[in-house]
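Long-time lurker. I teach an intro course on protein structure, and each term I like to show students one example going from raw sequence to a predicted 3D structure in token notation. This year I'd like something fresh instead of my usual example. Would anyone be willing to generate the tokens for the chain below so I can use it in lecture? Attribution to the forum is fine with me.
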Amino acid sequence: TTSIWSALAILKWRPEDQQLEVLCEESRQLRLDHTFNQDMAAEIARALMVLDVKDPRLEYQVADYVARRGLLLRSDTLLILAEFFAARQVSHDLAWKRLGVRVQQRGIDLSLQDIERLVGAFRRAGRGNQRIHGMLSLFLRIREDQAKYGAA
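-- Reply from a regular --
Happy to contribute to a lecture. Here you go:
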């Protein structure tokens, strides 16, 4: 079902309500699938935002994945999921904690613009603490210096 969500988002085609209901229900069990990975979670999150689908069943699948496996996220999927959480006002504390820890570990891998987007997501959601915001600020300064003076 992840590929269906992905294709719909690429086409920017929102199915009719009855079809959407069937797709959401089919996607409900994804978190139980052992092949469900961070790319699938990020793709579903991106599709839900593009198609403006607000369904708690799918939002829970994504939040549950982050709560269970969030410490293994790559920086690109971390950014997508943080923006999704902020946009949908996800309040899953453990998932946000996992994102916060991972941001401190992998945030430096992002570009200057992506780090700014990540900072914005944490601020919009009212999440993070001094340490997280401090690390993101440090990452921003490093990227700004690299843009000015080049990489070391």
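Some talking points for your students: Helices lie at 2-11, 17-27, 38-51, 56-69, 75-88, 93-106, 112-125, 130-149. The CA atoms of residues 58 and 121 lie 20 Å apart.
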